[in-house]
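Write out this protein's structure.
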Amino acid sequence: MDPSLVIKNIKERKFEKIYFLHGPEPYFIDLITNAILESALEEHERDFNQTILYGKEAEALSLISEARGYPMMAERRVVVLKEAQDFRDMEKLLPYFEQPADPTIFVINYKYKTYDARKKSLKAAAQNGLVFKSDSIKEYKLADWISAYVGKMGYSITPKASILLGEFLGNDLSKIVNELDKLDLLVEKGTTINEIHVEENIGISKDYNVFELINAVGIRDVLKANRIVDYFDRNPKATSIIVVISNLYNHFSRLMRIHFMENKSREAIASNLRVHPFVAGELLKSANVYNPKKIAANISLLHEFDLKSKGVGNASVSPGELMKEMMYRIMH
């Protein structure tokens, strides 16, 4: 279900009696909850008709009592159970979910995990209200999500900048949105956001990051790769050898798959590997540099250095020195 459609209906004041919001991605759950809190009641109605309770302290009977209460000088009531993942008596709310009160909007804010779809309470909530499952954005779709979000803000963004943001911030949408909101304050509307904007305003180096290191390794740019690894050695907070090894493993695993694809067009690679077309183009260049034999040797090498980074067979070599040796052996 598209969260923007849910929010559109809320802003048009087409409310459900129950909103059971659950799933691993908290961003959309909070977005929908906040839209309800902003739209359901006028500001002067909230003191008497809006109740927010928290999962750890809430009791089933009290929740049902609140939800069955009558609005005071308003059309409706809003009852929100936040941090519902900490509420242990969800199934005790079944009688209410089966017969919800007409004037009440009851919101279940159940974050970071999915509620069991076999439970009667979820089925009853779906029958008499709306159940929204908030899934995490897949890694290969993250750059497109960032691009779409930036477009709604009134900007555009280069593929490299969106991939850089995703690589650095991960798929924590709340963190990404917070950083993009900073750009909104500093960059003129209509601007195409590039890696320089990201570096200057968010603090992600456009030249010294894991994304650029993988690109350098991919085309055997030894000088650039060594410069980046040297930067990582001098700035341990920039990344870790574990992150570098993980990204290199993903890179060479993708290259091996490309070598055995019948259709090696950029579009086919993007579809089969579930990566952004820009990334597919970079992978194709790299596949022309490394043959399957060298790729297999590098994957084995990464396993060796993964063990060394965790202290297996390595008592004294620093992570920086390990990275430098690993880079040399991968590209030679």
